[in-house]
Amino acid sequence: GFYPNSSAIPLELIRNATGNLWNSFLNFTGCHVGETYDGLYKLKQYFQHFGYIPETLSGNFTDDFDDILKNAVEMYQRNFRLNVTGVLDELTLKHVMIPRCGNPDVVNGTSTMHSGRRTYEVSFSGRSQRFHAVKR
Amino acid sequence: YSLFPGEPRWPSNRRDLTYAFDPRNKLTEEVKTVFSRAFARWAQVTPLTFTRVQSFRTSDIFIGFYAGEHGDGEPFDGPLRTLAHAFSPPTGHFHLDAEENWIISSEGGDGVLSVTEAIDLESVAVHEIGHLLGLGHSSVEGSIMYPTITTGMRKVELTTNDVEGVQYLYGENPNLNGSVVPPPSTQQRDTGESGAASRI
């Protein structure tokens, strides 16, 4: 629905918007590799949806906090400039809960968010030789 | 800023782009005007132009609000969580979750997070248009192309990070006389009046 401001939103719509599935991810605060946690497969599905776990892996995940999830958490933390620990700390999970764009952050296993690099092709006239230079 | 793999962009002979809305949505003029404002922000810094047309089938960009599964294998998920997605050039598809509580005023709501379940439509539109033009997500938190948006928050001004990215793809707006300087991409930008919710 479309509203001129948030106070115009009917209360019952507000109520049914609060049951945000992603809020339940906060229950995984402190979870780390090597353990098994009830319902963790949902968080793996989240990370796969946004590209942090390869599409090639089938979507029926276990609740094991395995290396695949640890790598995904670390890449997520790196992308969003959080502490890169691989552990599901509260700050990371609070970030995961924020509404967002559906486009993936990671494409074909490569995070593009940190690239920031631009490649210049510089040609020195007369020598038709091309050099690649990278701006950091 | 980042780009889609292969750096796809609208070809040089297609820079005057048209956009249309899915007629099934029966959107009001007020809602459509939010998108006009959003497109104008990108037009201001590039040689691109965006014109709204009636024909949803022949426009360059197709905009629609859908709930759940809507044919592209990326179903929406109800209020909050995933808000919208858009495809890289020259595909032109721009989909938004019909089940969100969208704030359409040009002020983007009251700015106070009394209702955390509301989303500023223009903020999301400016972000997704960045994808339609070829930009990926940016890790700079204050930028428009940062993947997340705090509910109740309005973020519609292009930052230097966004402008640098889109001008890498298309160059500058030849008519831009430099009087408009985008704000820097700083973390403070996202605090708004209330600020607390976005200072995680």
- The structural class of chain A is alpha+beta
Question: What's the rounded overall pLDDT mean of chain B?
Answer: 85
User: What is the general shape of chain B?
Assistant: globular
Measured as a percent range, the helix fraction of chain A is: 25-40%
Q: Based on helices, strands and strand pairing, what is the structural class of chain B? A: alpha/beta
Helix content of chain B: 10-25%
The helix tally of chain A amounts to 4
Evaluate the radius of gyration of chain A: 20 Å
- Tally of helical segments of chain B: 3
H/E element order of chain B: EHEEEEEEHH
Counted beta strands of chain A: 6
How would you explain this protein's 3D organization?
The complex is a heterodimer of chains A (136) and B (200). Chain A has 136 residues and is an alpha+beta fold. Helices cover 28% and strands 16% of the residues of chain A. In chain A, the strands form two sheets. In chain A, strands 3-4 form a two-stranded antiparallel sheet. Chain A has a two-stranded antiparallel ribbon with strand order 5-6. In chain A, a hairpin with a 4-residue loop joins β5 (118-124) and β6 (129-135). Chain A is globular. Mean pLDDT of chain A is 81; it is low at 115-136. Chain B has helices spanning 29-43, 121-133, 160-170; strands at 16-21, 49-52, 61-66, 82-86, 93-97, 101-103, 118-120. In chain B, the strands form two sheets. In chain B, strands 2-1-3-5-4 form a five-stranded mixed β-sheet, with helices on one face. Chain B is globular. In chain B, α1 crosses α2 (121-133). The relative contact order of chain B is 0.19. Helix content of chain B is 20%, strand content 16%. By secondary structure, chain B is an alpha/beta fold. β2 of chain A pairs parallel with β4 (82-86) of chain B, so a sheet runs across the interface.
